[in-house]
Amino acid sequence: MDKLIITCAISGAEVTKEDNPFVPYTIDETVEQAYQAYLAGAAIVHLHVRNDDGTPTQSKARYETVIKKIREKCNDVIIQPSTGGAVGMDRDERLQPTELGIEMATLDCGTLNFGGDDVFINTENDIKYFANIMHERSILPELECFEKGHIDMVLRLHKKGFIYDPMHFSFVLGVNGGMTGETRDFYFLRESIPMSCTYSVAGIGRFEFSLAELAIKDGGHVRVGLEDNLYIEKGVLAQGNQELVKKVCEIAKKYNREVATPKEARQILKLKEFNHENIL
User: Fold this and answer.
1) Per-residue DSSP letters for the chain?
2) Could you list the pLDDT tens digit for every one of the 280 residues in the chain?
3) What separation, in Å, do the N-terminal and C-terminal C-alpha atoms of the chain show?
């Protein structure tokens, strides 16, 4: 069984300081949360950036500043920008961070109702467009799937030559409008991908740690962070992303699953050899 890759989604685009005061907005806050998550055991930082007032942005300049500052504090961490951005952004706006010499980025693999009138749109042509850009720029896509149909879309596009090996999936479960995060949902998705693929699980809200435990036992990988869940336990707000990462590390110990370093994560995911000169 491979070592456990922990991804930390430190802020997202939707949660606010009113939800949890540790949600980072400013550049310095974002860098510090990334650094603390890395020290706690995260090999990958899943990165959204915000303006200082907390509004989400896909600004290339803002991402570039944040990434450079993160690298000054933890130069080997894998930085995985979001290309999901926020509801309403167009393709090229969402793709701006892929111009920065990154190794990984998320690729959302289907459309989803996000509640109310919000629809997170990812058409088949959107997915092809994003996948082509990432392939041209030697970026490994993390294939974000919120339900079974999204996995079917990936496998179809893989067969047609739009998505390439190696494939790394992310099951994002518990989102309003997507699949729930029950045990049956985890196994349904897990059994729907080829055994040769790697995967990570992101459980939203109350599903975060129960799904983390299932993935750890199964040999998969885990995403946690304030983007997905604001609480360290029921009714108790997490005092930053590092608490969530540390809790996953404790679960891993229970199953004698070692936590991967960034270098080991690159080997497991078959990322190209890390070269400082190629990254910002």
Assistant:
1) -PPBPEEEE---SS--TTT-TT---SHHHHHHHHHHHHHHT-SEEEE-EE-TTS-EE--HHHHHHHHHHHHHH-TTPEEEE-S--STT--HHHHTGGGGS--SEEEEE-S-EEEETTEEE---HHHHHHHHHHHHHTT-EEEEEESSHHHHHHHHHHHHHTSS-SS-EEEEEES-TTS----HHHHHHHHTTS-TTSEEEEEE-GGGHHHHHHHHHHHT-EEEESTTT--EEETTEE-SSHHHHHHHHHHHHHHTT-PBPPHHHHHHHHTPPPP-GGG--
2) 899 999 999 999 999 999 999 999 999 999 999 999 999 999 999 999 999 999 999 999 999 999 999 999 999 999 999 999 888 899 999 999 999 999 999 999 999 998 888 899 999 999 999 999 999 999 999 999 999 999 999 999 999 999 999 999 999 999 999 999 999 999 999 999 999 999 999 999 999 999 999 999 999 999 999 999 999 999 999 999 999 999 999 999 999 999 999 999 999 999 974 444 444 4
3) 33
Backbone phi and psi for residue 178, each to the nearest 5 degrees, phi listed first:
-110, -170
The answer to whether residues 141 and 122 touch, using CB atoms and an 8 Å cutoff, is no
pTM score over 0.90: yes
Domains observed in the chain: 6-278 (3.20.20.70)
* Spatial distance between the Cα atoms of 196 and 239, rounded to a whole number of angstroms: 37
